[in-house]
Design brief:
Elements: E1 2-9, H1 11-27, E2 32-37, H2 41-54, E3 59-62, H3 66-75, E4 79-89, H4 90-99, E5 104-108, H5 115-120, E6 123-126, H6 134-145, E7 159-161, E8 170-172
Parallel strand pairs: 1-2, 1-5, 2-3, 4-5, 4-6
Antiparallel strand pairs: 7-8
The chain binds S-adenosylmethionine.
S-adenosylmethionine binds next to β4 and α6.
């Protein structure tokens, strides 16, 4: 079970990037996205709509209190993986993370990540030590975690793309 926690969502500034975090989580085989920060019903509705069209089980939730959420999940046995440019390189940690059987919360931040997140995390993982984006960090982490197998996942959506060398082919069930 892989849950992605997106911290610090701001309705005014982050709609697009938070949507992209959710879409990457879903496309790269995480099971759930949890948003924190501003409660944004429109964001949740738009991700739910995409999931209902494009298929498969993917949960979308909101948690006002991310501290309690992380504590609760830790007590339930989840391992907390925080993606940050300040962490240890993914190349050093990924095998250890992959072989542990624990369910996982992957935390990605927004503008500023509170220090407690670094403390509660079992792993602070960097995807290079350069600043980039939560979307890129999440995609690379999941790709490394699943060793590329996530790219072969088939989705059972109402809408499906038939890959083409050129042009677009979409079928609707
Ligand atoms: N100073 C922040 C940090 O701690 O990485 C950068 C903020 S960045 C706009 C938002 C989020 O993108 C971060 O909280 C982190 O989850 C992710 N991120 C950005 N660069 C990263 C990197 N090199 N490695 C891992 N995660 C990164």
């Amino acid at each position: 079970m892989i849950v992605v926690l997106r911290l610090g969502h701001r309705i005014k500034r982050d709609k697009r990037i938070s949507t992209h975090v959710a879409l990457v989580a879903r496309a790269f085989c995480a099971n759930e996205i949890v948003f924190s920060g501003d409660e944004d019903r429109e964001l949740i509705c738009s991700v739910k709509k995409i999931v209902s069209e494009w298929g498969d089980e993917f949960k979308i939730n909101y948690e006002k209190n991310w501290r309690n959420f992380l504590k609760r999940k830790k007590e339930e046995g989840f391992e907390i993986i925080h993606l940050t440019m300040y962490g240890l390189p993914i190349t050093k940690l990924i095998e250890k993370i992959r072989i542990s059987n624990k369910d996982k919360i992957i935390v990605v931040g927004g503008a500023k990540v509170p220090g407690e997140v670094y403390e509660i995390a079992d792993f602070n993982v960097s995807i290079t030590n350069q600043p980039h984006s939560e979307v890129a960090a999440l995609a690379v982490f999941l790709h490394e975690f699943f060793q590329g197998k996530e790219l072969e996942k088939k989705f059972d959506g109402k809408v499906r793309i038939i890959p083409q060398e050129k042009g677009k082919k979409i079928v609707r069930n």
